[in-house]
Amino acid sequence: MDGLPLGNVIKDGVTQPFLFLMSDHRGEAADAQTPEAIRQAGANIRSIYERLPGDRRWQIMIRGANHYLFSDGAMLKVPLVMRALRTVGVVRIDGRRQIAVTTHYISAFFDVYLKGAPASALKSRPEYPEVEYVE
Q: Rounded to whole angstroms, how far apart are CA atoms 134 and 58?
């Protein structure tokens, strides 16, 4: 979930089905102010993803999501803090909403690859318009 790949996986890739569940980082990699480490992390993720067979990989982006809100957002219950974070553009989606979307797609991924559910369980759903599939 919106993390950095580390270790041998960068060079060797993975062989099992894999889900990259990401916040929206578009524009960051092209931004001259973006640290090289962040640009490299994006390149590493793309490299791992592109080496996986098409039927065993998913990259899902949650528009408006923030890296820290995959779990921390539901914990930020101070309205003044959340209002300030929204004002400066750090938070664009409610933390509880982001966790609900995350929970759905992780559960669906495991249902498909561990319980034999149809891959369509991971397809876009009208109740989650903030989800975008990255090819």
A: 8
Backbone angles phi, psi at 116, to 5 degrees: 80, 20
CA end-to-end span of the chain: 17
Beta strands in the chain (DSSP E): 18-23, 57-62, 131-133
- Alpha-carbon Rg for the chain, nearest whole angstrom, is 16
Pairwise CA distance, residues 97 & 132, whole Å:
15
Closest CA to 85 of 104, 67, 60, 61: 67
pLDDT of res. 83: 72
Decide: 66 and 86 in contact? Cβ < 8 Å. no
| pLDDT tens, position by position, 57-81 | 999 988 877 665 555 555 556 667 6
